[in-house]
Design brief:
Elements: H1 3-8, H2 10-13, H3 19-28, E1 30-34, H4 40-50, E2 54-58, H5 83-94, E3 99-103, H6 109-115, E4 121-124, H7 129-142, E5 146-152, E6 155-161, H8 171-174, H9 186-189, H10 193-212, E7 221-226, E8 231-236
Parallel strand pairs: 1-2, 1-4, 2-3, 4-5
Antiparallel strand pairs: 5-6, 6-7, 7-8
């Protein structure tokens, strides 16, 4: 780290559990954020501010006026612009030392298979059930930790699947891909804006703990937030022996 970096990240370095060692790991890490909306916005901003060396933003959408109530990485002047380009400008202004990659396309299975292996951690900040399962399958196949978040109305949830561990369950263990599932979205159900901020910020914190190697992550736990009553519930989760993704082991 140079002198400017030592000053910029001094409040991390002063924390005993982080110090120079973990901060250096942040600078050397590559985080992939899939979804530059309500969850991806605060997650990306905190990770850029924290000094993650390389961030890849993946989102095929453009900024709409209705996004601005919660997607804090975008601004009024960004309406009509690709979300990844809008976010890149904000993150570059926040921390010009971060290498920012933008991918203005939907992350399908082939793209994920080609690109997930290059990431230290992947953040699922999407709102699409099919894409969530594709991300989970790719992360499991390549042993890349996954932090999954979701939010709708006043409800939020977050969990971490650290596929570096043979004991880790996967997203499909909790939400089987063949279950009947009614897709709902903020555009029809609405969302309380701070809820996505809380979950997205927690996704950033999980990524930093995974990379820095300190603290305890949410592996094996699903945390669920009711932000109407400001109550948290935690459910223990385990690998399922009949899971279609991880039951047979990686590479089987």
């Amino acid at each position: 780290m140079n002198d400017d970096q030592l000053l910029r990240y001094s409040r991390h370095i002063l924390v005993d559990e982080i110090g120079i060692e973990a901060q250096q790991r942040f600078l050397e890490a590559h985080v992939m954020i899939i979804g530059a909306g309500g969850l991806g916005a605060p997650a990306a901003m905190y990770l850029a501010a924290a000094g993650i060396g390389e961030i890849t933003l993946v989102d095929a959408d453009t900024v709409d006026l209705t996004n601005l109530q919660r997607q804090i990485v975008h601004f009024t002047a960004s309406v009509g612009e690709a979300k990844v380009d809008s976010a890149q400008k904000t993150l570059a202004a926040l921390n010009p030392d971060v290498k920012l990659n933008t991918v203005a396309t939907r992350a399908d299975s082939q793209w994920l298979s080609d690109n997930v292996p290059h990431a230290s951690v992947v953040l699922d900040c999407t709102d699409n059930f099919v894409t969530r399962h594709a991300i989970n399958a790719a992360c499991f196949a390549h042993g890349v930790p996954l932090v999954s978040g979701a939010a709708l109305r006043f409800d939020g949830q977050i969990s971490t699947f650290d596929f570096r561990s043979a004991e880790s369950p996967c997203y499909a263990c909790v939400f089987p891909p063949d279950d009947a599932f009614e897709e709902v979205a903020c555009s029809t159900m609405g969302v309380f804006s701070p809820t996505v901020g809380i979950i997205g910020t927690m996704q950033a914190a999980e990524a930093l703990r995974l990379i820095g190697g300190f603290g305890t992550t949410l592996q094996g736990r699903l945390m669920m937030l009711d932000s109407l009553r400001m109550e948290w519930n935690t459910m223990r989760i385990a690998r399922q022996t009949d899971c279609p993704v991880c039951a047979s082991g990686r590479g089987a």
